[in-house]
Specification:
The complex is a heterodimer of chains A (about 900) and B (about 130). Chain A has about 900 residues and is α+β, with helices and mostly antiparallel strands. Helices cover about 55% and strands about 15% of the residues of chain A. Chain A is built from 27 helices and 26 strands. In chain A, helix 12 (about 335-365) packs parallel to helix 23 and helix 23 (about 740-785) runs parallel beside helix 26 (about 840-870). The longest helix of chain A has about 45 residues, at about 740-785. Chain B is of the alpha+beta class and about 130 residues long. Chain B has a single domain, classed as Arc Repressor Mutant, subunit A (Orthogonal Bundle), CATH 1.10.10.10. Helix content of chain B is about 50%, strand content about 10%. Chain B contains 4 helices and 3 strands, in the order H-E-H-H-E-E-H. Chain B has helices at about 25-40, 45-55, 65-75, 100-125; strands at about 40, 80-85, 90-95. Chain B has a 3-stranded antiparallel sheet. In chain B, helix 1 crosses helix 3 (about 65-75) and helix 1 packs across helix 4 (about 100-125). Classes of the chains: A alpha+beta (about 900), B alpha+beta (about 130).
Chain lengths: ~900, ~130
């Protein structure tokens, strides 16, 4: 079959030569036949005819051979394509509008599909990623992290349902030996982890079990991610084999990973130390054919055994919880929103198709005479349909090509808008346009060609010869335009209403009283290297030096420290607070935040009542505390909170080196002030009760430095790092974040993503509606020119003519508007589940209707004006 | 792949009692066999050979031979080459290929089987 096709393709390409050869062959054959007849005694003239009789019809044979040899259908289609291309080239305004409409529609759908594809269909770069699972505990329906001892990990690794298991740990390592010490996000994996994930090295090798066997100190080896290799070694292959200083120990670089692995998160990977007692964050690879549910059943006895040995780590009735990476990802909650936007982009494409359909119909109507003539000359219906479909296919394919290109270039911008961490975009960054995406776009192009070409093809392939040849435009065809227009407007209203709702939501979010001023506020995180400043006094002195040194940096206006707090809505830890003589059970556990006294001044959080502690009293007894308004209201609704005493047991418990309580803590605090509320459990929730205490009471090994600067905080990263280095040359500074970034993470980014995409869609949809209406009205004016001329000549006023010209279109718009509003209200319930705002919002609906109506009417004004300025004498004279 | 069972052009002239139509699809088989038996031939030669074998009992438009040849070339069972004929005319010579021989064997076998069956079916009446 293929062979025949190939030979046909070859023959089509060498057609004229083969034709000549065939002619020669047949001529020779006839000549030989003639000769034979002559030899057998025939007259030459008689032999000529006898030979042709014997051969059969020469032309028929040639035709048959030609048809068999070449591809007549393909040639016909090629002719149609050339014809259509010439036609489209001749009307550039029409073609450009149609192509751009489709291109934007396809670009939006393709771009979002590639994000959806990355997020849902193929989010993980690992081979057979649906067999990679997280192992957790199912505590009566609630997932809980599993931690196991090293022998237990080994037992899991040998389970007959698993092809290996590994533990991991995210932490930071300090990279020194370069100009400034740097905190590098690292992931420790038990040494066969990369083999279980089946991550191949790009260069060198990945570590394996021999690099970190159970019970032994691991080798000092490190595997670099592609990002780290690019940023620190400029992608030079000689990096492999070199050593780098991590936590002041030399580590040998043994390999580099391909770009799609760990493209977010950790930048370097090292073997996990399996001499420790407990490891956590367990992942495993299921054996082929084992489902997560099967694995849960088979791991149950093992878990029971663990629970017997360490009952404290396993709650009563705990069962194994085995979830694929995909399942843990789905829990993230961003998926429905992504799907909604994807749906919106498909809606947009549908609009673009409807619009092109209208354009084609209008264009087809003006070509009705051409079709009638062709039909009269014997063109079959199929032939006419094919030509019309080829035309729309040509538009769609050009649009798709442009759209895919635009999607490719525009994707990084859209990806930047994505809330950080909401979608695993590692694959996407490595291969932005991949095969599934291309298939999808090709499918879209084909579908759009059919959708926008079908109705014109059906209506014009059946020309009523006598009717169309005489009257240029039937009322029937105009009705089709108006129906499509109304449908287009209805969908546009839906899209606009969705956008309006999202915009209102975003505005609401921005307006949410933050209770502080995020402008030019940033946070630098300082993480002490292990076993540094292990005495309370040393650590307190070090932190104090840090603060003073940073305050001296030019352009820094104010510096505050916090050991458990951050930029709202990020907040501290939860801790029970006991108020004497009061039963606190059932109440919400308050959030407590450990800060330096000038935190409120730095963040510009107002003091409502009382005072804030001074530096000198921050460590003394009785301990002092400040509460937020919500806490004051909750505990002492009718009285002042000032002077009350509360107890927090967390302050008596002594900790490891990473938690140093101040000497002499008794856990009692006296409230000396009340400050304004700031969001502390996310931006969408009302603030929880919160209590602020001096950070010096509990010095952890991580301290956050809040800075208010007079300039863009990110431009100061370098000077902040330098300042820290002058205090301790080995102390790295974690990435400096701005308050605006923190707010973006907390929810602004999600709404911003939704809103900006929807807004783009809505503007485009509105433009489509304008183009649709404009072309329908101008077409109708141009073909009713003579009618208007007559009416004007008979004394109709210009106002009446304008009315007649736009009235059907206005009716269509109004009908579409009503349908769209009804649709929005009806769909509100569905959309509400995804919480991007309220489609029912009357303000939004009224605004949307007004905008749509005004904009479309403006677009109808130009052709209406043309109708009004018709000169009756001219109009009647023209054909 | 079976030889295409498309209608061959049947002679519209001189259809007499003792001259049969070419059975559908059998022309390809006959052409293939002729090339197998006689080596490279041009179209005219094939037509003469078919005429000779059938002893004038089979009548066909010689042009259909070219149709059959094209089908066989497209399937890769026959290859062609330009050369000079006996009378020193320019002619295209066709020869059977290796896969063509295999196909011929297959087709011959199936033809014999079918004609055997048909023969038995036709004898049914006369036995009773």
């Amino acid at each position: 079959m293929l062979r025949v096709l190939l030979s046909r393709v070859r023959a089509t390409l060498r057609r004229s030569r083969l034709d000549d050869e065939l002619d020669d062959e047949i001529r020779e054959h006839l000549a030989m036949l003639e000769e034979r007849f002559v030899r057998s005694g025939m007259e030459p003239s008689e032999a000529f005819y006898a030979a042709r009789r014997q051969f059969g019809g020469v032309t028929q044979v040639k035709e048959q051979l030609l048809e068999r040899r070449t591809m007549p259908l393909a040639e016909d289609v090629a002719r149609d394509v050339r014809h259509a291309a010439r036609g489209l080239w001749r009307s550039p305004g029409f073609s450009l509008t149609a192509i751009v409409s489709l291109a934007v529609g396809i670009a939006a759908a393709t771009g979002l599909f590639s994000i959806v594809n990355a997020a849902l269909l193929n989010p993980f770069p690992f081979a057979d990623s649906n067999r990679i699972v997280r192992l957790d505990i199912n505590d009566k329906g609630k997932p809980r992290g599993l931690s196991v001892t090293v022998p237990e990990l080994v037992a899991l690794q040998q389970s007959d349902v698993l092809d290996g298991a590994f533990a991991s740990n995210n932490w930071q390592m300090t990279l020194t030996g370069r100009d400034v010490p740097e905190a590098v996000p690292a992931r420790e994996l038990s040494a066969d982890g990369l083999n279980v994930l089946e991550v191949p090295p790009l260069l060198g090798r990945v570590f394996n079990e021999a690099d970190g066997p159970a019970g032994e100190q691991p080798q000092r080896v490190v595997v670099l991610t592609y990002r780290f290799w690019q940023s620190h070694f400029g992608g030079r292959p000689e990096a492999v084999g070199q050593t780098i200083d991590l936590n002041r120990e030399p580590y040998t670089i043994i390999g580099v990973l391909p770009p799609q692995y760990f493209s977010t998160g950790p930048e370097i990977l090292v073997p996990l130390d399996l001499t420790t007692r407990i490891v956590w964050s367990l992942q495993a690879r299921l054996k082929r054919g084992v489902t997560p549910r099967m694995a849960e059943q088979r791991l149950q006895p093992l878990f029971e055994q663990f629970a017997d040995e360490r009952p404290r780590s396993f709650p009563e009735g705990a069962r194994p919880l085995v979830r694929t990476l995909m399942e843990t990802q789905r829990a993230a909650g961003f998926v429905p929103i992504l799907l909604l936007i994807f749906l919106a982009s498909l809606l947009l494409l549908l609009l673009a198709c409807a619009n092109v359909s209208i354009l084609l119909l209008v264009r087809g109507s003006s070509r009705a005479r051409e079709f009638a003539v062709r039909a009269a000359l014997g063109a079959g219906r199929g032939r006419l349909m094919r030509q019309l479909l080829v035309e729309s296919l040509l538009l769609a394919v050009t649009g798709a090509a442009l759209g895919v290109a635009a999607g490719y270039w525009g994707l990084p911008a859209v990806l930047r808008l994505l809330p950080p961490g909401s979608v695993p975009i590692g694959n996407l960054l490595a291969v932005p346009v991949n095969l599934p995406v291309l298939f999808f776009s090709a499918g879209l192009a084909l579908a759009s060609a059919l959708i926008c070409g079908l109705s014109p093809a059906l209506s014009f392939s059946r020309p009523h010869l006598t009717v169309t040849a005489r009257a240029p435009a039937g009322v029937e065809s105009r009705r089709a335009h108006h129906t499509l227009l109304a449908a287009q407007v209805a969908v546009t209203v839906l899209l606009l209403a969705g956008t309006g709702a999202a915009v209102r939501m975003l505005i609401g979010l921005y307006r949410t009283s933050l209770g502080y001023d995020p402008h030019n506020v940033s946070i630098a995180s300082i993480n002490l290297p292990e076993n540094h400043y292990t005495k309370w006094a040393d650590r307190a002195a070090f932190y104090e030096r840090l603060r003073n040194r940073m305050a001296d940096v030019p352009q820094v206006e104010s510096v505050a420290l916090a050991t458990a707090s951050g930029i709202p809505p990020e907040s501290g830890e939860r801790s029970a607070v006991y108020v004497p003589g009061r039963d606190m059970t059932g109440d919400e556990t308050p959030i407590y935040q450990r800060i330096s006294g000038n935190y409120f001044a730095t963040m510009k959080i107002p003091l409502i009542q009382g005072r804030v502690w001074s530096d000198s009293e921050s460590g003394g007894t009785p301990h002092v505390a400040v509460v937020n308004q919500t806490m004051a209201r909750a505990l002492w609704p009718d009285e002042s909170a000032i002077g009350r005493r509360v107890r927090m047991p967390a302050y008596i418990r002594s900790g490891a080196y990473f938690r140093l309580p101040a000497p002499g803590s008794d856990g009692w605090f006296e409230i000396i002030g009340v400050v304004g509320d700031t969001p502390n459990v996310g931006l969408h929730e009302p603030p929880a009760p919160s209590i602020y205490v001096p950070y010096t009471l509990m010095l952890t090994d991580t301290v956050n430095v809040m800075l208010r600067t007079s300039h863009d905080p990110l431009s100061m990263t370098r000077s902040i790092r330098e300042a820290v280095r002058t205090v301790d040359p080995y102390q790295p500074v974690d990435v400096v974040r701005t308050a605006e970034d923190a707010l973006a993470d907390a929810g602004w980014a999600r709404e911003r993503f939704v809103t900006s995409l929807l807004l783009g869609f809505a503007v485009f949809a509105l433009m489509l509606a304008v183009v649709g209406l404009y072309s329908v009205v101008s077409y109708s004016v141009s073909c009713r020119c003579k009618e208007f001329g007559i009416r004007l000549a008979l004394g109709a006023s210009r106002g009446r003519i304008v009315h007649a010209a736009v009235q059907p279109a206005v009716l269509a718009i109004v009908a579409g508007l009503c349908a769209g509003l009804a649709l929005s209200v009806a769909l509100n319930k569905v959309v509400a589940q995804w919480s991007i705002g309220n489609l029912n919002d009357p303000v939004v609906l009224v605004a949307v209707s007004l905008v749509l109506f005004v904009v479309t009417m403006m677009s109808a004004a130009i052709p209406a004006n043309r109708a009004a300025s018709i000169q009756p004498a001219e109009a009647l004279r023209t054909d | 792949m079976a030889i295409a069972k498309e209608a061959c052009y049947i002679t519209p002239v001189a259809m007499t009692k003792d001259r049969s139509e070419v059975l559908q699809g059998t022309l390809d088989l006959m052409v293939l066999k002729a090339l197998d038996a006689l080596g490279p031939l041009h179209g005219y030669g094939i037509a003469r050979r078919l005429e000779q074998i059938s002893a004038d009992r089979l009548r066909l438009n010689e042009g259909t031979v070219y149709n059959s040849l094209l089908r066989l070339v497209q399937q890769g069972w026959v290859s062609s080459e330009w050369g000079a004929s006996e009378s020193n005319r320019k002619a295209k010579f066709y020869s059977i290929t290796k896969t063509g021989r295999k196909q011929l064997a297959r087709e011959t076998e199936s033809w014999q089987r079918i004609s055997g069956v048909i023969g038995r079916v036709l004898r049914l009446g006369s036995e009773h």
